[in-house]
Amino acid sequence: MASPAAASLQQHLLFGGGDLPTASWKRAVSSRRRRCCLRREAAISCVQTEEKTRRTTVKNGADSLDICRVLNGMWQTSGGWGQIDRDDSVEAMLRYADAGLSTFDMADHYGPAEDLYGIFINRVRRERPPELLAEVRGLTKWVPPPVKMTSSYVRQNIDISRKRMDVASLDMLQFHWWDYSNSGYLDALKHLTDLKGEGKIKTLALTNFDTERLQIILENEIPIVSNQVQHSIVDMRPQQRMAELCQFTGVKLITSVFFLCDCLSDQRYGTVMGGLLSEKFLDTNVSIPFAGPPLNTPSLQKYKRMVDAWGGWKLFQVLLRTLKKVASKHGVSIPTVAVKYILDQTSVAGSMVGVRLGLAEHIQDTNAVFSLVLDEEDVSSIAEVSRKGRNLLDVIGDCGDEYRA
User: Fold this and answer.
1) What is the CA radius of gyration of the chain?
2) In the chain, what are the domains?
3) Contacts of 273 (CB under 8 A, 6+ apart)
4) Straight-line distance from the first to the last Cα atom of the chain, in angstroms, rounded to the nearest whole number
5) What's the rounded Cα separation, in Å, for the pair 24 and 5?
């Protein structure tokens, strides 16, 4: 039975309200972590992350995976961001890996992303030293339709990804589920856990799950290491209920950053909001037709709606000017500051930066994240503007609710 302090935390996480029972909560967390490390039957497993400058290791029990803290997001291969050339894309992936950006995030529905990774990893095996091969990671997602989650169905779909990516074991399988009223997600995750036991998956993770469901999953002893969520200076929802649960359990957050840095064609999404958090949109008015940069990608249109929900374009310009001041001070770009600010948030293990493979590259800009140190003045000035907007937890709901409205 949960301790009173743990029960109080559970109520706070799920329903909000009241102050956290700080002293007793810390004792409960410490006690719970000792129990979960010592006893396999504990409801929530012990998870730890070893923080380093460029790479981090997410762990849950015996499961562990080290990844680059800035991940290459391959969403753009799904269409809507330009024509994809297979050979050019693979060459670009090799350049990213050679530059130390060796973790790639994809999904079963991102067009040819998994196939491109399979070609890429074979090139690495043949043409690169073993040291680089040892650092390359391929993280994929499985987003099944709402059908019965049988063992054979789950196995069949995971085998498809393994074949496409040309790997015996998936480094990380990130699971998404559309309808919480259908509890089949627990069946799917239990079958995925079995496949992990067979060596077909190294680590299990989630994508766009809310706090309540993450807790339910952990209490069902599913060894989750991370949850991928939308997180930006405008959208700080993950730092509320989700971060509290992550601190309590050790599960880490991977944030969708997706910034595609090209001074002439800045098409970014996630932590830099589809490219809105960039110099390209500084001192512009997109409400006047043809007066500013076009919102011509699905991501730009999506995150413009997020800006409207947060506080509108006028307040967003205040944020951009603040970020520009910080960026100029450190000799970096606005997106670099935006990514670093989120990487420094509680429980964040990594952030994804979207890549337009074969079309535009941002290797130098991305690597600048690792040397950037935001001082107290920088952080305070950014946080001050962020807080002036609406709390999107109240407007939209918890993490992932924007996909289930």
Assistant:
1) 21
2) 47-403 (3.20.20.100)
3) 232, 234, 299, 303, 306, 307
4) 35
5) 6
Backbone angles phi, psi at 31, to 5 degrees: -65, -45
DSSP 19: -
| Both tokens assigned to 3 | 């301790």
pTM of the model: 0.84
Distance of CA 290 to the CA centre of its chain: 33
Task: Give pLDDT tens digits along the chain (405 positions).
Answer: 444 444 444 444 444 443 333 333 334 434 443 333 333 333 344 444 444 589 999 999 899 999 999 999 998 887 765 678 999 999 999 999 999 999 999 999 999 999 999 999 999 999 999 999 999 999 999 999 999 999 999 999 999 999 999 999 999 999 999 999 999 999 999 999 999 999 999 999 999 999 999 999 999 999 999 999 999 999 999 999 999 999 999 999 999 854 433 332 333 444 455 568 888 889 888 776 656 676 766 677 777 888 999 999 999 999 999 999 999 999 999 999 999 999 999 999 999 988 888 777 889 989 999 999 999 999 999 999 999 999 999 999 999 998 886
The alpha helices in 313-360, defined as continuous H runs, are 313-330, 334-343
Q: How far is CA 317 from CA 93, 105, 182, in A?
A: 34, 31, 41
Q: CB–CB of 224/23 below 8 Å?
A: no
Q: Are 361 and 367 in contact (CB under 8 A)?
A: no
